[in-house]
Amino acid sequence: MQPYLFPYIGYFQLVAAVDKFVFYDDVNFIKNGWINRNRLFLAGDVRYITVPLSGASSFLKINEVGVQPGDIWRRKIIESMRQSYSKAPYFNNIKTLVSEILFLEENKIANLAKASIVAVCNYLDLDTQFVFTSTTYENKYLNSAARIIDICRQEKADSYFNLSGGKELYDESLFKSNGIDLYFMESQLKKYQQFSEEFQPGLSIIDVLMFNDINAVREMVIANNINHENT
């Protein structure tokens, strides 16, 4: 998966289901995606928090795209969270977690996004290993399924998991012929108490963490709470 900024809980359900999670960071950057932004319930509505980028272009790889220097945007994100979530039961802990990531001295969005994911996993005590495609496999000349299969071969993996959105991209028989079981996972977006009168599903994991303790969030993400099945 591409590294996303504090992604929604379905991303972490996938992380929790595997032994090793591969950040696909040397593919072309896509504007208006989830790499540098996500959604929270801010000022009474669902709005984006966004890390501003420097020189972002679809001609660059994700790991080549820079983060805008300076602290102004960082302080604005934290202040927006404070205004909207200060009365949430776990605000103080999660504000600290988010602040520590946003104020890292990282100048690339891929590293910042990865750090946001790893920090949440550490908070939840998930022991999945993480690697970047750009620094590990030396196979960026391969495309799509061929590259995934090569990564599985290098890792000696017999199972590959993806979210259900990947069903149109990969052929089960191709993976099977290479000794790999292909699984797609349906995310479970369990309702929990929010400030919104109507439950807003699929917001950033930040929203989930603001309203639920560690054990409750772990129960939402562990593998036996998810449906996963072959194509």
What does this structure look like?
- The two termini are 18 Å apart.
- The strands form four sheets. A three-stranded mixed beta sheet has the order 7-8-9. The protein has a two-stranded parallel sheet with strand order 1-6.
- Helices cover 38% and strands 17% of the residues.
- It is globular.
- It is built from nine helices and nine strands.
- It has one domain.
- It has helices spanning 9-17, 72-85, 91-102, 109-123, 133-136, 144-155, 172-177, 205-211, 214-221; strands at residues 20-23, 37-42, 45-50, 53-54, 66-67, 129-132, 159-163, 181-186, 227-230.
- Helix 2 (72-85) packs antiparallel against helix 3.
- It is an alpha/beta fold and 231 residues long.
- The model is unreliable at 224-228 (pLDDT under 50).
Quick synopsis:
The chain has 231 residues and is α/β, with parallel strands linked by helices. It has helices at 9-17, 72-85, 91-102, 109-123, 133-136, 144-155, 172-177, 205-211, 214-221, and strands spanning 20-23, 37-42, 45-50, 53-54, 66-67, 129-132, 159-163, 181-186, 227-230.
